[in-house]
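#struct-pred

JT: dropping the chains for the assembly here, can someone run the whole complex?
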Amino acid sequence: MEDGREKKKPPSPKFCINDHVDILVEILRRLDGDTLAVAACVCRLWHSITRHDSLWESLCFRHVPSPPPSGIKPIVLALGGYKRLYMLCLRPVLNRLSRFGLRDRVDHVQLTLSLFCVDYYERLGGGGGKLGESSASSSSLMFLCRPVNV
Amino acid sequence: MGPFDGGSSSSSSGSCAGKSPEIDGLLAGAGYKVRSSELSQVAQRLERLENVMVNASNEISQVASDVVHYNPSDLANWVDSMLAELTHPQYPPSDLQNFPHHDSWTDQIGNQQNQNLNHNQQLTMVSTMMDEEDSGIRLVHMLMSCAELMQRGDFSLVASMIQEMQVLLIRVNTRCGIGKVAGYFIDALSRRLFSPSSAVCGSDSALENEILYHNFYEACPYLKFAHFTANQAILEAFNGYDFVHVIDFNLMHGLQWPALIQALALRPGGPPLLRLTGIGPPSPDGRDTLREIGLRLAELARSVNVRFVFRGVVASRLEDVKPWMLQVHSKEAVAINSIMQLHKLLYMDPGRASAMDTVLSWIRSLNPRIITVVEQEADHNQPEFLDRFTEALYYYSTMFDSLEACGLQPEKSLAEIYIQREICNVLCCEGSSRVERHEPLIKWRTRLSESGFKPVHLGSNAFKQASMLLTLFSAEGYCVEEKEGCLTLGWHSRPLIAASAWQAVPDEPTRKRDREGDLSI
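RK: done, full complex below.
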């Protein structure tokens, strides 16, 4: 019996990625948004790593034809961070533009940032106008989330 | 007509022969054969026929010349066929279902009915669908006739037409398309007729107006287009200036300004010092709405490290604003932003100076770097009611069409209420209470050029940005067009909103303009 159990025990791995966080970070930095979100569900370590904004920073402007304006980082951070920028604005914008084959041709950075700024403003409570509802949800960006009416 | 022709001609003889005890004796003496049991029904249908004939006067001649008339002595049949003629001119009457299913009805029709039952069911279905389309088209025609009667002052006829239209409205799907638009226009006509006082056009509550405006902002891209295009022009005009001052003619929630603040923050060379003066109506409950908005904008500006100063100017009408209230400093670049505000100045009170001239002259005296003007692209300021009505019908039908693409509730419904209030103001109000005096871009161009302004081309960046904004909007029907340096946004090639930019033509040095208040140029 004990022999059988010993036979079933897997051999101990020589290399565990979780022991080498710097390599893990390098790998995760190169993933696309959806895969990154999936990676966040793997284990607690991966989850905490993927919550670092710097990971999303490299994702955000990967496909832009021209480099983003300098001084953009403090502004993005002040308005909510790269992860939020990606999830709320960039991802739907890129999806929409891909549908029309424009993703790599059009410089959407300024527009995306402006929309992100409007979102921040609304979260401050500046949007107002929702009857009886708290303006915690950014409603002016809802049009980005709706499916394209083809 | 086919199944009836043979039927009715023989039916009268058939019914005469076998059914005489049931025919009403008094009417029979006058030559009409009506069953006693159907007297009330026939009477109602006669009344209906009279209503329809009175209101469809232009169709009577067609009935008189084209149609085969059924034997009028068989009154019941005749009334039904006439009603069928006037309400569904082309298709076999669906009133077939209304015919009482007695065994004692004429043999011919009875046999035909049994044979054609399936066929008729299909026909009824088709004719119901056609009914709706027909009814929609009829509604439009009736709306136009009603508007003409309204202009002529034929108010009693207008009232009965409104009733008739409301009956027709039941047949149409009022949740979308022409039914919905027609519903709002019928409502506007009846308001104009029955309660022409100025208090008709929605409430004056500033809070309500703000909420509706906000929902209009979210439900469709017109306001977003306006904001982004104006911001681009202002951004380009402010290039190289370290002290800039934006004057917003209608602050509302200040949704236009976060994007400008962010764009200025990212400006190569660093952001300028931004002053924003927001004009808005007084808030009734003692809240200082302008100040609250100003505080939020200041907080946002602080987050992105832009030096920001806000000032609120409370005025219920734009012509009440005096330039000294704006406290324009010398050496700062001024931008004036008017999103759908200038048309409110177009009312010409015969005894007083033109509000438009007053405002335009003090705008000039401020010597702004740029003036951004966004207006509805429609001619709703024509003196004749019928012209306004026709133009409004086409304009707002297109706008409602474009709104269909929005799936967000309750934003869409509230946006519709916002539009409905505009419609009511255009159609029901007169004199100083009619503020929605929209004029097309051509007229604005002329007016502004004659008042000492020259156009500034909006540039390709604005166009690209507007196109991109529309790509992000899910509906594919919006189109951006560039016309002589101005941008228009429309639905399916009908422009609905136009954005343009202007600059004051500098005065000749010898001419002095009279200025109001203490100004520094």
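JT: nice. The longest helix of chain B spans residues 107-152. The mean pLDDT of chain B is 81.
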